[in-house]
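Reading group handout, session on sequence-to-structure problems. Before we discuss, look at one worked example. The prompt was deliberately terse, the way you'd type it at a terminal:

> structure Magnesium chelatase family protein

The input record follows.
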Amino acid sequence: MSIGQTQSIALLGLTGSVVEIEVDISDGIPMYSLLGLPDAALQESRDRVRAAISNCNEVWPNRKVTVSLSPAWLPKSGSSFDLSIALAILIAHGTAPQEPFASMVVLGELALDGKVRSVRGVLPALIAAYKSGITRAIVPAANRSEAALMTQMQILTFESLREVLLWGRTGEHPVAQELDLEKTDVDEYLDFADVAGQTKARFAAEVAASGGHHLLLIGPPGTGKTMIASRIPTILPSLTIDQALEVTAVHSISGALGSRSPMSLIAPIVSPHHTASRASIVGGGSHVIKPGACSLAHHGVLFIDEAPECAIGVLDSLRQPLESGTITIARSVGNITFPAHFLLVLAANPCPCGKYTGKGRNCTCSSVQVRRYLGKLSGPLMDRIDMRVQVDPVSRVEMAQTDLGENSAEIRARVIKARKAAADRFSNDPWQLNAQIPSRELRGKYRPQRDAMNFLHDELDRERITARGLHKVIRLSWTLSDLAGHTVPTLDDVERAHSLREGTDL
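And the output record:
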């Protein structure tokens, strides 16, 4: 009897566990037995592994093959175990050495011809391995750029099973292309200079980017709501390395890295269609639980156009992550928590026909239809929106101007300056943005000027704002104060913040 051993990683959300793969080859009727709670994709690994071994001119053991994945109680899913199972079989058969593959994790799906295909979740898997004390790993060559982010580990990448076996037997390894972390971000984004007019909406976008405040844009079709929302990432500061790792890990586990460079430091923007289901927004799944749009927008922007057209309950499902910055999905396999700290931008028409603007002469909707349409945005959700901005049609004069306005670089410089002022103020606090200031601190250490607080208390007594609304206005006033260069929010800052929240003129 002979036994081969390798290691891999089983992912449950962003959390990974080291899986010991043991293969026993013994006398008996030729068969293949896979133990350890594998899912359907993992059960099918038998035929992929057998074909890959045979097509690499290796000998498949014509005996009883037992593959055990431990811990046995942990559910395993996906095809990332293929390569590690194949190596364990060849080690048990005596045709591959055990020592080179000891104390390292192996990830990769096998094609029938022996090529190693890319898999999802390489970065979170490597992070889990490193936390378990493992510092070496084998990953597919297609995942090289993602794996290169784990600079603390020795990463070996291979194109095929043949290359892996050659390295194990002789130590020869194909020369891998070195990655330049400074030049891999080649994403192209739009610019705010493309937006004509819309002074109020442009300023609101700047305030949202400076303090992390949520924004609702209301206006008829063709006024530039989508243009403004899609350009907000261009004025956000670059992600830190830790933030970029978090974003890449979430995108990796969802299999969405194809549209984003693993080393990108640009804040992500996710724009799901208004027909998206609740599970696609917050995440879910039965066997493989994937993050939703709110987690893919982590440290970035979640933009939902035609918000009132969303199905009942979809937008309200965002209320919990808007407050906590995380989303927890409960399934039979366990509870999985994904990060979901995002800037929410909603866009809506003023009525079903979209023409209820100005004097509303072209609108064909009744007053009941207008109220019912905007009433689809529930009160509890709207109470969590910091700013509501009316986006009016662009005038002929604004369209005729050759100089449309400031570009993204100029706005971004002011956003970075405002965020630095906030960071200096919060140097001894665990939060970084004005939108994250706890409510208790707003009533003490971060209290605006007295006349400003008197104004808010009067609004609260008249029931024009809620307690949450009062705190939202104070947080917003701190961002306006940072942009204006004030040390403490003044009455003008608070009144302007109140106007932004209520959707009145600035």
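Points for discussion. First: The first strand starts at residue 2 and ends at 12. Second: The chain has three domains: 2-170, 192-408, 437-506.
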